[in-house]
Amino acid sequence: xxxxxxxPKNPYPAEVYRQEFSVPFDYPVYFTQQAFAxxxxxxxxxxxxxxxxxxxxxxxxxxxxxxxxxxxxIDRIKEYFHARPxxxxxxxxxxxxxxxxxxxxxxxPVRDVMWTLGNLHMDRQSFVxxxxxxxxxxxxxxxxxxxxxxxxxxxxxxxxxxxxxxGVGVKNGMDEHGMKNFVGTFAPPFAVINxxxxxxxxxxxxxxxxxxxxxxxxxxxxxxxFEFLCTHAAALRRRDLTAMEQLIRRCAILHLExxxxxxxPFELGSARPLDFGHWLAHKLETMSAYRLGHGQAVAIGxxxxxxxxxxQGLISTDQFERTLTGLTAAGLPIWDExxxxxxxxxxxxxxxxxxQFREHLGGLLCITLPRGLGDKVExxxxxxxxxxxxxxxxxxxxxxx
Length: 401
Prior knowledge:
Elements: H1 3-6, E1 29-32, H2 42-47, E2 56-63, H3 64-69, H4 73-82, E3 88-90, E4 95-97, H5 108-119, E5 127-132, H6 134-146, E6 152-157, H7 160-166, E7 171-176, E8 179-186, E9 191-195, H8 204-221, H9 223-231, H10 233-237, H11 241-261, H12 278-287, H13 294-311, H14 317-329, H15 352-361, E10 367-370, E11 376-379, H16 384-398
Parallel strand pairs: 1-9, 2-3, 2-4, 2-5, 5-6, 6-9
Antiparallel strand pairs: 7-8, 10-11
């Protein structure tokens, strides 16, 4: 009897036509200053970069925190558009929307933006310009990606974390169901403009927060950049703008290169190297009711996962200590009181972040850990006892911060 004869025949035969196509995506990321200065042509050139021979309509949304920190910003935006009536049209005066995690916590702000865009009769060639921090960019970008299945989004990130990470990628979203970024879309922007002149008015927490994302990507991708961060940590904490400009540019490009060359720009697989340290960070943010900023939570996540890497022999004691010293010298925490909280069964409550992360990834737990400096490895199991040991170690090192 042949193998074919032993195989049961499918009583429901099917024909298949395999549909397959590729769609190229491109978006420029600019590094500049004073993007809304009347004599700076960059934004107008960006909106007209396809040379379509039309007047470009745009709706502009500004982060409330940024508008408060830079009170002349709204007027500068209006003047910029009014100075170019043949090329640009401001669909309505710039709208101020919530910033911080409140921007993406629930459907209210998203619905408001969608409702406004509908009332303005924005079409698929219209522009939505989002000026603000990462959470606000996520929310406005999410709304813009849903209206007419996607309007053209131009991001002007206003925080360190947004300029070197959140604002240059292809994701949009909001928090829901008790989880960070539970709802969202992959929708590459039309362009990104990083304006360094937004940074001097940042609160210290927002200035330092983006430094954590730089440490994250440097540890797993660029040993030379890691050394730069450790060497310049004190200068960064002192708010040295020249050092921060170098950090933002290198960190943003590392993120962009990963999206371009990593083979999974829309995260269809389970491995997400750029989420190193994030399984714990996302959990700590929600546990602290967002008292902890994203960057501060990421710094703690990096510290805990680096402890695991140390115990697995992936990094040396010197490399682990240099990581902790670099983070703290830059003004970032490596421990928080939320790490002490216990679930009813006695386990650390933060460990539930592993299960939430597994679900978010798509079923298989895949955690990125550093392997030496500038390299990485993916692991599929995390030892709770090792994590708890690391938490206790870090309490001793950072509990007094």
